[in-house]
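Q: Got a minute? One more chain.
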Amino acid sequence: MTFQQNKNNCFFSGIANFGSKILGGVKKAAQWVAPALHKVLSTISGPVGMNHPAIGGALGAGANLAGAADRLVNKRG
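A: Always. Here it is, folded:
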């Protein structure tokens, strides 16, 4: 293996390691945000839906999506 090949391998290995750290941080953030967002949207969709059904429905749909994301990233259900 030449010096140039070794240098390129090190460079791409560093990029892969950096990308892995970013994805790990995003996953940790999603594990915290998804359940909180699901709880908040589920709580407010009912009362808001009484005054404005369309907005309440949109909040309910958002709560369902956040719940699905929560189950996906936290491996529940």
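A: The CA atoms of residues 35 and 66 lie 7 Å apart.
Q: Perfect, thanks.
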